[in-house]
Every structure is written in structure tokens, then in C-alpha cells.
Structure prediction request, 212 residues.
Amino acid sequence: MVELLPATVEALVLTLPGRDSPEVSTPRATLTAVLSDTEETLAALPPLPTVALGCSVGALLAVRVAEHLTPARVCGVVVAGQSPGALRRWPLHVTSDEDLLRVIDLAGGLPAAVLADAGLRRSIVDRLAADLRLGAEAEEGFAEVRLNTPLTVLAGLDDGLVPAHSMIGWPRHTTGPCRVLMLPGGHLAFLEARHSSLVRAVLRDSCATLPG
Prediction:
């Protein structure tokens, strides 16, 4: 997706606490740690306007980061594959391996060769469980989140994890402009090649609103 960004925009990827060490088999990041680490990282960089972008659990985190920081620092948000409001997001609360593998399947699945490797499958399932626990923490009180920045939402019409009809609630999360774009496809519809031109335009427009 980075290749769809304008050439004048630099992409910074958030690495969750614990994910930067291969020795940590099951990272246990907290929302407080994510917000603190993100704030410290941005504070060490030139004070340039920033757009937060996230998908799925990352969408909740992007909104929470924008809420935590000032609009002068995070002045736009783009999210994909996530429900708004107080809706209970069932994937965030599954615990069994069977249900975790179902979440993976509904998100787009993994190659059979990957799932056939017991050690690799165990690592993927454990890390997904950790991500979902973080998402469940970010979900608490999410209905009350109100941003003051432009908000763009990308959603798949056939997303098995996030109901398309729930997208109507996203405008309530900001006092700024909000646009919701429904794309044919599933949870990761925005990454499909057929939508690349549209997503490129969305990212260009989101970055074009940056001050300075």
C-alpha cells in the first residue's frame, strides 16, 4: 500500500511493543504503551503534519492515536476494515484456536503450506490472539471517541468480519468531514489491485488536506 502514497509523503510503520524482537513469541502490547510509544516516536521527528492509517485492529489504534495526540500533530485519519461505535466486535473476543483460525480465514486466509507448519501456525495464532486482546482494549469506550480531523473509511461490501451496514456510524466519530467508501470485496478489499486507482486517489486527497 505504501506504493500508492504520493511521492512527497513518507510512510512510518508502527511496530507494536514486543514485535521488534523475534525472541518474544507472544507480544503483549497495551493501549497505553502503544499511545506512549507513538507519541515519543513522533516527538523525536520534525513537527510535520501526519495522517494516521490503520486496518482492522490497526484502525482502532489509528483513531485512538489521533484522539490522544493534538490535531496539529495528527491532522487526518484513514481506516479500513473496522466497525464504528459501540458495536461488539466479535473477532476481538475469540480465544480458541478454532475461532482464531476462522478469523484468519474470514480476513483472507493464509496459504495451506503455512497452516500445515505446526510451529508457524502456532506463532501466527498466538500473535493474532495478542493483537485481538489489544483491539479489545482499544474497543472499550470507543463509542465516545470524537476527533476533530478529516476521517476516511474504506470498507468491503462482503467483509465477513465487519458488517457493511455498520459503516453508517463512522461520521459520529469526528466533528470534521467524514467519507465512507464501500468497495466490492472482503476484509482487505482496499488492497485488491482492482481498487488501487481509487485507493491511490483517496490517499492523495487525504494527504492533500495536510496543512503547510
